[in-house]
Automatic annotation (TrEMBL):
Belongs to the LysR transcriptional regulatory family. The lineage of its organism: Bacteria, Bacillati, Actinomycetota, Actinomycetes, Kitasatosporales. InterPro entries: HTH-type_LysR_regulators, LysR_HTH_N, LysR_subst-bd, WH-like_DNA-bd_sf, WH_DNA-bd_sf. Gene3D superfamilies: 3.40.190.290, Winged helix-like DNA-binding domain superfamily/Winged helix DNA-binding domain. One of its GO terms (molecular function) is DNA binding. Residues 1-58 form the HTH lysR-type domain. Keywords: DNA-binding, Transcription, Transcription regulation. The keyword Chloroplast does not apply. The keyword DNA-binding applies. This is DNA-binding transcriptional LysR family regulator.
Length: 299
């Protein structure tokens, strides 16, 4: 059994195609097919189902796949460990982030600082919802992510809270709620509200709190950026639930109402704590945790 056979097998599964795998690896397709056939003969089982329009792993292939990935990860980690000991950290890290971070998190500065310290490490950046980012971190597809939290992280994921602030109601100055300074969450049971989409930490916090209060919120508007929600509320289009810092940024156009009891919005760094983690990934987690320490809250 050779490492390249495992590499070819994993890539074909990921691409669901011999042709795409060959293109990604810059190898001739017949070479990939021949090596995987050798691997199948050695194991005595077919690993790939070639009968459909796309290539899929067989039951045996599904069983072999995590071991193949672990073997490739171990070899990559061994190489990077040697490079780390010699002072030349190489590799690639992928960082995920929610769309709106607010003023407290300067992600470009964080990435620039890491690049300055480790110029040979390639950095990738992707944006998504918190739910999908946490799933990707747990699966080892993302090395570090900035996510919204509305509860405990999934197993195998460590977190460090970096933003913890109040969520508030933002309305136009002529809205009936503009006469209030605080309100119980139940006061929104009959009002259409505006919120971030499902899968975000803020939306989960709102829905969990509403469930605890005995109702399901009627979300009339969704936007991935809380600043857009604030602008919609300022135009009199409804009630927005946003972080307090966002409401402050639009204070001239909005009236802010606090929740009683308080409702919190939390952003956190998330990283993998189980499974193989390479030196470059460990380095970016260390850098981020030092760059974005846990905040003092106003609880």
């Amino acid at each position: 059994m050779e490492l390249r056979q495992l590499e070819y097998f994993v890539k074909v599964v990921e691409e669901a195609s011999f042709t795409k795998a060959a293109a990604a690896l810059h190898v001739a397709q017949p070479g990939i097919s021949a090596q995987i056939r050798k691997l199948e003969r050695e194991l005595g089982q077919e690993l790939l189902d070639r009968s459909g329009r796309t290539v899929r792993p067989t039951e045996a292939g599904e069983a072999v796949l995590p071991y193949a990935r672990a073997a490739l990860g171990a070899v990559s980690g061994a190489r990077q460990a040697v490079e780390e000991l010699t002072g030349l950290l190489r590799g690639q890290v992928t960082i995920g982030t929610v769309t709106s971070l607010g003023p407290s998190i300067d992600l470009p500065a964080l990435l620039a600082g890491f690049h300055h310290d480790h110029p040979a490490v390639e950095i990738g950046l992707t944006a998504d919802t918190s739910d999908r980012l946490l799933e990707a971190v747990a699966g080892g597809r993302i090395d570090l992510a900035v996510v919204g939290l509305a509860g405990e992280p999934p197993p195998g994921v460590g977190v460090q809270i970096v933003v913890d602030e109040a969520l508030v109601v933002a309305v136009s100055h002529d809205d009936p709620l503009a006469a209030r300074t605080t309100l119980a969450l139940g006061a929104l049971a009959d009002r259409p509200i505006m919120s971030l989409p499902r899968g975000t930490g803020l939306r989960a916090s709102v829905e969990n709190a509403c469930a605890a209060a005995g109702f399901r919120p009627h979300v009339a508007f969704e936007a991935g950026d809380p600043n857009v929600l604030a602008q919609l509320a300022a135009r009199g289009l409804g009630v927005a639930v946003v972080p307090e810092s966002v409401a402050r940024a639009h204070a001239a156009q909005l009236h802010t109402v606090g929740f009683r009891p308080a409702l919190r919005g939390v952003l956190a760094l998330a990283w993998r704590t189980e499974g193989p983690v390479g030196p470059a990934a460990r380095a970016v987690v260390r850098h981020a945790r030092a760059h974005l320490p846990e905040p003092a809250t106003d609880r």
